User: Fold this.
Amino acid sequence: MDTFTAIRERRSVKHYDPEHKMTDAEIRQLLEAALLSPTSFNMQNWRFLVVTDPEERAALRAASWDQAQVTDASITLILCAKLKAHEEGERYWTNAPQAAQQMVVPMLKGYYDGRADLQRDEALRSIGIASQTIMLGAKAMGYDSCPMVGFDFNKVAEIIKLPEDYMIGMMITVGKALKPANPRGGQLPYEEVVLKDTF
Amino acid sequence: MDTFTAIRERRSVKHYDPEHKMTDAEIRQLLEAALLSPTSFNMQNWRFLVVTDPEERAALRAASWDQAQVTDASITLILCAKLKAHEEGERYWTNAPQAAQQMVVPMLKGYYDGRADLQRDEALRSIGIASQTIMLGAKAMGYDSCPMVGFDFNKVAEIIKLPEDYMIGMMITVGKALKPANPRGGQLPYEEVVLKDTF
Assistant:
């Protein structure tokens, strides 16, 4: 599917065919695409949980104010981040020339070390970017998606056994739409959102 | 361009043809696509500054540790967010039925009001999502891009006259590549990044 078509036709869909299953190959195609999303200093600070276990999904739905898409979609993804990913800079630059590695690895560490605020900002930026890769990729594969923050983050952290120094960024459901999304709610005018040079 | 091709071929490019100009129609096509990116409660909390003014771009480059792409790319985008966007919920749901509006508008306000932390999280999530729309859209149009956080946020805020209660999320340069990106630095194994059900 053409990129701009995917951008236009991606909508947040809440009604899915509960009988439809994505194949392992489809899930892998989608997540391999997500792994090509850019991250600051290539630190790949995201971690993607693919939840298919029915009991776990029922628990996630209960923690999401009973939103049906959490169990009815084919998969529920939890997008998490490793907050201390910057500490392992060597791993993200093994293919770079030595001189480049010696420059970039200390820069990465220096930028984020001891800065919980920047680590969190970067987690959300990385997750945001990757989430759109997933949503557009899903659309191009004939699926629909729903990005979600409407859940109890602490409860979900318990369910997925979130380790210390990790955080949850968002949830995305992916599956076969049973019903299209409603028309867009109300778009702000282009001129209000896109500005020239300065505010 | 096929969506998965755009995902695969999008790389962070730093060397641009400084003579190339994007047309106004191309810039508008790209930013109109960005405006179709999803946001929590449809609150469209992003604002996109398209910087083409040469003097301003020189100042931005100085505030970005002299990174050449800031002036050499065809445009420099500053992705900002309006932190209090949740206060204007009515505007984002004008096309929805009255009953839906009466439910969602107070929910939006209730979720973010007085919560500077959630407002900031949502700003970065929204900006991350839209940034990937822009980077993939640019690729599909035959352009390349470079997402950036390596700049002095306070200095850039001054240059762009950032109002109170707004924040800067990132910068993206878009233009005609002169030189392809280096090979990917070192990808983490799929099995480390994609997990099944729980950590």
